[in-house]
Design brief:
Length: 260
Amino acid sequence: MTPSKSPKEPSSETLFSLFKDLYEKKTTPEKAFQAFKFFPYEDLGFAKTDNHRRFRTGLPEVILCDGKTAKQVALIAKKLYEMHGYAVASRATEEQANYLKKTLKNVTYHEHARMVVVGKPPQKMLKTGITILTGGTSDIPVAEEAAVTAELLGNQVERIYDVGVAGIHRLLDKREIIEKSSILIVVAGMEGALPSVVAGLFGKPIIAIPTSIGYGSHFGGLSALLTMLNSCALGIAVVNIDNGFGAGYLASSLNNLKGP
């Protein structure tokens, strides 16, 4: 299928008219921005790039690599890079990452997070306040997806890994770091008890991520998910199984409420 411009993409005349109204003070900067931020997407035939998502949400459209060929990922990344100066892809395989490195410039592959960054996001003053904890080492890939996402959005992230409930003394040993945090992302598989324990010990908002890690009848993370949803501890919000990206984005949004 031949890539084509979306009919919803604004013409030069439309943009000129908008800027002219702004210059002549027939509209306000706020109204002009509201009009501008919902403008174009581009139809690539197999995908439609949401070129202005960054204006609406603070982060460009992130490419989910699952089910896509390396060539498709590269084509989408190229378009988003041209629009924003950088592009981000999640759940990337090593094969997809290597293809991007061969076809595009300035590509960084975060292996543990399974994320690829093309170009360089705008430099921001890093905000402190987010700490990520995992129950075990096997949960690190999901935790790293959350960490890299939050970092791309301008946050400094503390990592405390392998502090699950089977050895609770390891968690208590990191009490000072946790107490200084504003938001905790707690990642756990198996029975998923760590967020409840952390919430019972520390008065911090918690974003819990159940992972698909565990022995026997953990049902691909469902057991951890249900434990977290049914927690009697207060202050826990739960994202979907293995959804590190969603947790990192939510943590960043909450962290930004603190102001500069």
